[in-house]
Design a protein that fits this description.
Shape: globular
Helix content: 40-55%
Strand order of the largest sheet: 4-3-5-6
CATH superfamily of the largest domain: 2-methylcitrate dehydratase PrpD
Number of helices: 16
Radius of gyration: 21 Å
């Protein structure tokens, strides 16, 4: 049996991974590796928790090693897709995420190399996820849950001798890259294993929104602060973004019918709520806030345009934004943000990450339990036995 975070119920490891993975991606606050187009935490951690608890617990170092295995495999598989999976309309959480979860669960269950290869082959065959969920479908979060579940299931099956697809990442017909990318993966994604750690390229989000929207909101916040603007001073905002961001976050936004997820994904909403509230906390992404008449009145002032400057090969600037803010007094104010706060290029500190945790956890479980969780996680590698790292405080 395995734990469901935040609940007293326990269930099977695969169902626990499903619930915890879905919850992990549900409010768009999970970390992200931009190059791999993957939020590894919401697929890897639920898989490790479920597999570790089913095994009766692991010592802290093995628990963390399973996380590293899942991150490194998932990120490298995602990097080799060079963003093309996303361009073709597949959601990497559900596709690449299943492989990441299988690698993590396999390490947690101490599978040998052959069984791990079969687990990866099984998980890749279970991979799925359509990017149209970005327009507000609850299924977006479910992709992470299903990927975590598929990874755990694949590892359990492989442990019994159940086989998957050999050489599943190969480019031949019907294998992973052929199916999801339309060709071979780029380069040797296994290069420099144990020497170069791709998980160090993971960044953290401080706002519950899409990365492209966060970058645009950062730019607007800086302009408004520098020039002492309020929403009523703004006549029009033109956001110049990459083709990727335009596809991902530039859809039409109707506050009368939009969900919270649609608001989190939308650059138009993000810029409108930033103009009005001058912040982008969880309070800006609620049904009540979406329905505010002032927001509906401001939305038509926001326009998106694709900038070829941000479509450079490799997708390095795919989250960048350049804003033109046309003021009612005739001024046109221009600024740009190339990298989101919390990215590798503009990192947050460990103290800022802990503060994010407290801001989210304290209202739910209280200060004492939140501090106990943080304290245990800091020394997790020294723990003699870990199932869920939060199980004792909760």
């Amino acid at each position: 049996m395995a734990s469901i975070l935040g609940a007293s119920e326990r269930t099977s490891p695969t169902l626990a991974a499903l619930v915890n993975g879905t919850a992990g991606h549900a409010f768009q606050l999970d970390e992200v590796h931009s190059g791999a187009v993957l939020h590894p935490g919401s697929v890897v951690l639920p898989a490790v928790m479920a597999a570790a608890e089913s095994a009766g617990g692991l010592n802290g170092r093995d628990w963390l090693a399973a996380i590293v295995a899942g991150y490194e495999v998932g990120i490298r598989v995602g990097l080799a897709a060079r963003g093309r999976m996303f361009e073709r309309g597949f959601h990497n959480q559900g596709t690449t995420g299943a492989i990441a979860a299988a690698a993590a669960a396999s390490r947690a269950l101490a599978l040998d190399a052959g069984s791990t290869a079969q687990a990866l082959g099984l998980a890749a065959s279970l991979a799925a996820g359509l990017m149209a969920v970005q327009e507000g479908a609850m299924a977006k979060a479910l992709h992470s849950g299903r990927a975590a579940q598929s990874g755990v299931l694949a590892a359990f099956l492989a442990r019994t001798g159940y086989t998957g697809i050999d050489d599943v990442l190969d480019s031949s017909y019907g294998r992973f890259y052929d199916s999801f990318v339309g060709g071979a993966g780029a380069g040797d994604f296994a290069a420099a294993l144990r020497e170069r750690w791709e998980m160090l390229g993971v960044g953290y989000k401080l706002s519950p929104a899409s990365n492209g929207s966060i970058t645009a909101m950062q730019t607007l916040a800086r302009i408004m602060t520098k020039h002492h603007l309020d929403a009523q001073d703004i006549e029009r905002i033109i956001a110049h973004v990459s083709t990727n961001t335009h596809h991902h976050c530039g859809f039409a936004f109707d506050p009368k019918t939009a969900s919270v997820l649609a608001a989190q994904m939308s650059v138009r909403y993000g810029l409108s709520v930033m103009a009005l509230d001058k912040q982008a906390s969880p309070a800006q992404f609620t049904p009540q806030r979406i329905g505010d008449k002032r927001l509906a009145d401001f939305l038509p002032r926001v326009e998106l345009q694709v900038s070829p400057d941000f479509d450079a090969p490799g997708g390095k600037l795919r989250l960048a934004s350049r804003l033109e803010v046309q003021c009612k007094d005739g001024r046109v104010l221009v600024d740009e943000t190339l990298y989101r706060k919390g990215s590798v290029e503009d990192p947050v500190s460990p103290a800022e990450i802990e503060e994010k945790f407290r801001n989210l956890a304290v209202p739910v479980i209280g200060k004492e339990k939140a501090e106990a969780c943080a304290a245990r996680i800091r020394v997790l590698e020294n723990e003699p036995k870990v199932g869920s790292p939060l199980e004792a405080p909760l």
